Amino acid sequence: MKNQSLQDERILTQRRKINSEAYGIIMIVLLVSILVQQFLLNAPFKQYAVEFICLFGMSIYMIIRYMMLGLNIYGEGKRARSIPLVNSIVAGIVVTVINGVLNYTKYAEHYEDNIGLFIATLAITFIGATAFCFAVLSFLNYLNKKKQEKIQKQLDDEEEQD
User: Fold this and answer.
1) How far is it, in rounded angstroms, from Cα 72 to Cα 143?
2) I need a surface site. Which of 4, 145, 152, 156 has the fewest CB within 10 A?
3) Plot region of 38 (φ>0 → left; ψ -120 to 50 → alpha; else → beta)
4) CB 74: neighbour CB atoms within 10 A?
5) pTM for this entry
6) Model confidence over 42-87: pLDDT tens digits?
7) d(Cα 74, Cα 81) in Å, to the nearest integer?
8) What are phi and psi of 43, to 5 degrees?
9) Are 63 and 73 in contact (CB under 8 A)?
10) Cα(66)–Cα(148) distance, rounded to whole angstroms?
């Protein structure tokens, strides 16, 4: 039998926590890099395409892996129920702010006489972005629940056979 060095469970938990935090930091840095290059530096897409692909590719990978394993995408507990709504509102605000700043810098002369048009544009942007994000997150949650039910059914069937 091979002599394996057993690691303390606390050490493994701390390592996983550190790796998870590092992953979160990298994702935030990628997002900030994309936003800075796109909006502040007016860079062409090909300049920040790698960051974009990494950010969204890893996000999609994580969602698929969570769903394949039947894990809750949003975690467990009472807070998990409100995460899709909160994330949708935050995404709506972020999209609205970015779009508002870009539109105002490009079309300020159109909004000087009619600030109501600018506010209406922001309101429509916020409602549309929030609704779209909520629909996508709710759909992902629905798919996740279906996968969990399928896994639970398989486990119940295996338990009945034994």
Assistant:
1) 11
2) 4
3) alpha
4) 19
5) 0.72
6) 899 899 999 999 999 998 998 888 888 888 877 777 777 788 889 9
7) 8
8) -75, 150
9) yes
10) 10
